[in-house]
Amino acid sequence: MKPALKTKSKIVLTLLVILLLVSLLTVFGAPAYYLWLLAVLVTGFPLLFIGVTCILLVSLFWIKKYRVISAIIGVLALIFFCSPVMRAYLVSKVIKTEFNAAFGLGSTHLTGDKSQPAFSFSGLFTTYGIKPGDYKTFAYGGGSTQTLDFYPSRVAGKRPCIIIVHGGSWSSGDSKQLPELNSLLAHAGYNVASINYRLAPKFQAPLAITDVEQAFIYLRKNAGTLSIDTNNFVLLGRSAGAQIALLSAYKYPQNGLKGVIDFYGPADMVWGYSAPASKLIMDSRAVMERYLGGTYKTVPDKYFANSPIEFVNRQSVPTLIIHGDNDVLVSPVHSQKLNKKLRDNGIKHYYLNLPWATHGFDYNINGPGGQLSTYLVERFISTVCK
Question: What is the pLDDT of residues 16-62, one digit of tens each?
């Protein structure tokens, strides 16, 4: 064999080995922070990795050395990369029935087409972005950071309002996070208010909860101008924002609040402190200490007072929980515990568990997890806002 061909064989084999190792992130939790970021891409944009693997497999037709072992490794990587797509398809086959059992019949999709599936292979090729002018920014409080991005409903008349609370470990992030869902919901006929709130460590709990309350006051006060139906609010939060949204909904329920949506949020701050994430991923105890003002030993009451799960009761609002089993930042045990507490109290709720998904799986709204979660978010909203 010519030296050039031998070198190419080694390069292809090396690349396929790397892809196989990367593909394992669809099955196993990431062991380090940057591998978690890679896991978000692998599970959110599987077609990219499937395409690269296929190209390398096709190249084996022109390579003899290491062909068999390269083919085996490549096929294994391809199977793993395809697994989020296939598992999303399987989940989509039961999601409608399970949601109907929990909430009854409701609108099925943003398009209003009742035949539209919860997941489609063609949807993986779709791109969606926001356009300039999709939203306007308003100040809802006295502080410079107390602003919200308002996406007006594209349907005329008084419409429900979805309040979005961003993630970022209570100390970072802003209202511009993952805006595609905001715009998509606005086109579906909902007003969306994506809020900024005061961040730790300068501002600690419960000031973020106060900001949510102030946002409600602002939206009610300006309901006429903004065409908001004040009898139909829904809170939606991601990660740390989900903790804020859940606590606001359960501990300080607002008039007109019809439901809360929890994307991979820490629902039990007491348990979460006792079972921290790996420090190679995130120092979750330090994150909680900055937000709550101390360790569990020094301020145990604050951990209890900021645990949404402690305030679930028989009058709590309907809840949608969405979490991935491969989440290495916020353990899915939070959602499992919340699911049980809601069930024990007879609260209408649905828990979507995504076996392949990691924290932030909805970064790509058209990915396997993004499609399923978007479908459920809209269906939940249309069901509770009647």
Answer: 999 999 999 999 999 999 999 999 999 999 999 999 999 999 999 88
Cα separation of 363 and 360, whole Å? 6
d(CA 242, CA 250) in angstroms, rounded, equals 12
pLDDT in tens, 193-218: 999 999 999 999 999 999 999 999 99
Alpha-carbon span 258 to 381, nearest angstrom = 9
User: How far apart are the C-alpha atoms of 100 and 108, rounded to whole Å?
Assistant: 10
Domain 94-384 grouped into CATH 3.40.50.1820: yes
What residue spans define the domains of the chain?
3-88, 94-384
**Between β-strands 191-195 and 147-151, what pairing exists: parallel, antiparallel or unpaired?**
antiparallel
Taken in order 72, 78, 84, 87, the sign of the CA dihedral is negative
- The answer to whether 348 and 102 have CB atoms below 8 angstroms apart is yes
What average pLDDT does this structure show over 315-344? 98
Mean pLDDT of 1-22: 83
**Residue 139: other Cβ atoms inside 10 A:** 13
Please, which pLDDT band fits residue 111 given cuts at 50, 70 and 90? Answer: very low
Hey, what are 377's tokens? 């978010």
3-state secondary structure the chain: CCHHHHHHHHHHHHHHHHHHHHHHHHCCCCCCHHHHHHHHHHHHCHHHHHHHHHHHHHHHHHCCCCHHHHHHHHHHHHHHHHHHHHHHHHHHHHHHHHHHHHHCCCCCCCCCCCCCCCCCCHHHHCCCCCCCCCCEEEECCCCCCCEEEEECCCCCCCEEEEEEECCCCCCCCCCCCCHHHHHHHHHCCCEEEEECCCCCCCCCCCHHHHHHHHHHHHHHHCHHHHCEEEEEEEEEEECHHHHHHHHHHHHCCCCCEEEEEEECCCCCHHHHHHCCCCCCCCCHHHHHHHHHCCCCCCCHHHHHHCCHHHHCCCCCCCEEEEEECCCCCCCCHHHHHHHHHHHHCCCCEEEEEECCCCCCHHHCCCCHHHHHHHHHHHHHHHHHCC
Tokens read off for 227: 């065409």
